[in-house]
Amino acid sequence: MFRIFPGALLCAVLLLAVSSSAQLPAASTPSSPAATPGTQAAAPAWQVRTEPATLVNGAPAILYVVPPVNVEGLGGSWMGHKIFFSFDPASHSWYALFGTGLNRTPGKYPLVLEGRTDPGTTDPGTTDPGTTVSFQQELEVASQPYPQVELKVQHKFTAPSRRLLRRIRKEEILKHRVFGESSEAQLWRGPFLSPVREPVTEQFGVRRIFNGELKTEHLGLDFHAARGTRVQAANSGRVILARRLFFEGNCVIVDHGEGLMTLYMHLSKFKVRKGQRVRRGQLLGLSGATGRATGPHLHLAVRWEGVYLDPAKLLKLDLPQLVAPHPALAGAREPAERSGAAQSRAVSQN
Fold first, then answer.
1. Is residue 149 within a helix (H) or strand (E), and if so which, with residue range?
2. I want to staple 221 with a disulfide (CB 3.0 to 4.6 A). Which of 73, 99, 123, 311 is the partner?
3. Is there a contact between 267 and 206 (Cβ–Cβ < 8 Å)?
C-alpha cells in the first residue's frame, strides 16, 4: 500500500497539464475581414475636385479627376456640355476647363465621367485592361450676384432700321456657323493672359440698360484701351473670324479648341487674318471704338460650349501647362519671331 503525500499529488497534476498543453495546436489570432477567404479589399474611389472649390454661375473653373485605374483617355459631360480632358503629369491627374452659364439656376448638377482602361498597363485585382469605366457625381453651383448700369448710345443701335436688321440677321447666321468650328483638340497652353495692360472699366455680367431699356447683359470684360492700343492673343489657337460686324465692330475670334474661344471687339485695325495660327501674346490688332461703343475700349469675351464665361476669372486660373502643343499649332511662331513685314501682310481689313 502506497502513501501519497498532498504535495506530490499537486506536482503530478501540474506536470500532466503542461504535457497536455504542449501537444495541443497553438491558438490562432482572429483575422481581419480583408483576410477572410472569398472577400476583396474595397475598390479605390474616383477623386474629383474643382478649382476654385466653389462653382458659381457665369464662371470658368478647372476640373481635376483621378480615376481608380489607369485610363488611356477620359471624357465627360455636364449640363449637356461635352468636357474634354488632358493629362497633367505633374499632378498625375486628368484636367479640363469647364464652366457655368451666367443665368444658370443654383443647384446640384450631375457630372458624368467615362474612360477606357489603358491596354498597356494592368491593375491587379481591379478592372481588366481595355474595358470602359464610368462614374457620376453631383457638382453644386452657387449664386453670384451681378450689378446693373445705364448707358446712352445712338438710337440706331437700340432700334435699328429694316436694312440694319437684315444685316444683323445675316451676321447672326455667320456667327452661329463660326461658333460651330471649334477644334476638338486642346490648342491653348497654360494660363491665359490679359490682352492689354490697361485697367478694367466694366466687369462681366452687368445688366446693361441702353437709353432706359434693359437690352443686354454684359457678356465680357471692358478695358480702358485708348485708340491704337496693341491687343494680344490671350492664348494660342486659330483665328476663325476677323471682320467688321454691326454690334461688335472690327472683331477677331480665336478658337482655343475644345469648345473654348476668345473674342476681341471694337478694334480699329486687324493684324491677323482668318485661318491664321497664333501664339499666346501674339498681336491680333489695335483697339478702337467701332461697332456699338460709347468710346475707345477693348471688349474681351470668353465663350465655352455656347455659353459666355467671366474673362476676369479665366485670367486668374492657374491652368496646367500642356506638355506638347497640338500639331495644328506646329506652324505658329512666337510673337518675337514675326517681322514687321509679316505683320503687314497679315492685315485683313480695316
1. strand 148-151
2. 311
3. no
Q: Which amino acid is at 15?
A: L
Query: 189: number of CA atoms within 13 Å, CB side?
Result: 15
| Residues ≥6 apart with Cβ < 8 Å to 236 | 187, 188, 189, 256, 277, 278, 279, 280, 325, 329, 332
249 backbone φψ class: left, alpha, beta (φ>0; ψ -120 to 50): left
| Cα 196 to Cα 102: distance, rounded to the nearest angstrom | 24
Closest CA to 282 of 242, 330, 233: 233
Cβ 234 vs Cβ 194: under 8 Å: yes
**From the CA atom positions of the chain, what is the Rg in Å?**
32
Q: What is the pLDDT of residues 5-49, one digit of tens each?
A: 444 444 443 344 444 444 433 333 333 334 445 555 555 799 999
Q: What is the per-residue pLDDT for 21? A: 42
* Neighbouring C-alpha atoms within 13 Å toward the C-beta of 58: 19
The amino acid sitting at 146 is Y
What local confidence, expressed as pLDDT, does residue 134 receive? 94
Q: 296: cis peptide before it, omega within 30°? A: no
What is the CB-side half-sphere exposure of residue 136 using CA atoms within 13 A? 6
Helix, strand and coil percent figures for the chain, each rounded to 5? 15, 35, 45
pTM listed for this prediction:
0.77
Residue carrying C-alpha cell 506536482: 11
pLDDT at 271 over 90: yes
Cβ atoms of 208 and 218 closer than 8 Å: yes
